[in-house]
Amino acid sequence: MVKTLMLLCSVAWGEHSVNVSSSLLSLPTVEEARERLEKLDQEISSLSFQFVQKLEMKETGLLQRVEGNLKYLKPDRIRLEHRKPREQLVITDKKTISVYIGGKRPQLIRTAWDSWVKTQASVVGLMDFGNYGQLLKKHDVSVDSTTLEGTLYYRLTLLPKVENQKSSHSEYTVRLYLLPQDFFPMRIELLLGQMFMETELSRVSKNPVLKESLFKFEPPPGVELLEFR
Fold first, then answer.
1. Domain boundary assignment for the chain
2. What is residue 123's predicted lDDT score, i.e. its pLDDT?
3. CATH of domain 2-223
């Protein structure tokens, strides 16, 4: 289950990137970045995008690539689909979370969101749409800028505050890459121990009309159900 759910984090650059000259870019303060992200939270009621996610385990040399799409509907509904390397569907309302894994022996995993999220640093980022302003309040934040493939980004580096974690202050590191024109987080990187994860977004659509039925799932007959509390 952990291996399956560890693939739920990170976000990246895509078709909405624009070139900005570093000489024209004024670096925001942490408070200004938080205010802009809170404004973005208020403006977005729904989202749809495709993504490519890459996972690297430095100790073992394991490399994994996942392709899929995500749909978000305010306040807390998320539908995440993996197309490659195998079929997988994740649906949550941040009360419960369901993970459907297809294949020869399909499984449906259900558990409570609160009990699960406390053990998963890897959800920082992708599961925080609509709550990025609050996310910054829970972390120590630094701001700089960087260029990726000719496009300039504001880069926010987040470290969990001591009161919000059980182990060392550097247990994980999250980097948000924001477009200067609207502060949309087009890339997120996660470093957790020997694991490095990144996700690239494409075909981002803000505030599309999304049907309620997208966030419900009835498993096909014969699926093995695993429930955890």
1. 2-223
2. 59
3. 2.50.20.10
Mean pLDDT per 10-residue interval, the chain, length 229 residues: 37 40 73 92 93 87 89 92 85 91 87 77 65 86 92 92 56 90 90 88 93 90 83
* pTM for the full predicted model: 0.79
Can you tell me the distance from the alpha carbon of 214 to that of 191, in angstroms, rounded to the nearest whole number? 31
> Parallel, antiparallel, or unpaired for β 195-206 and 224-228?
unpaired
By the 8 A CB rule, do 204 and 49 touch? Answer: yes
